[in-house]
Amino acid sequence: MKIVTISADELREIIREEIKNAGNLFKESITALEYLNVTQLSKYIHLSVPAIYQRVADDSIPHNRIGSRIIFERSDIDKWIKSKNSSPPS
Questions:
Q1: What fold, for 9-86?
Q2: Neighbours of 16 (CB within 10 A)
């Protein structure tokens, strides 16, 4: 075993980098999914879970139901976001 001495600032930087890398891996794993649940969609589009449920209730976000589960096809969500960004402000 080898003992290495580092400063507190170096340790903080190492931790920051590891957290950043873990976040990137999580984003990549969500992006690779074809279907998302509400929690995954929330993280994917940075919208709160209650806001997503509200959009499901008023049928303003593309979704599918499988029994009581609500799922979202990522390609439909991507198209929905693009359509929202290209619409003129109301």
A1: Arc Repressor Mutant, subunit A (1.10.10)
A2: 10
For residue range 36-63, what is the model confidence (pLDDT) as tens digits?
999 999 999 999 999 999 999 999 999 9
Mean of pLDDT values over 54-75: 96
The pair of three-digit structure tokens given for residue 47, joined into one six-digit string:
């919208």
The CA distances from residue 87 to 32, 51, 52, 75, 90, in Å, are 27, 20, 20, 18, 9
Query: Contact at 8 Å (CB) between 56 and 72?
Result: no
The four Cα atoms 9, 15, 16, 20 give a dihedral, to 10 degrees, of 160
CA distance 8 to 40: 35
Q: What is the pTM of this model?
A: 0.62
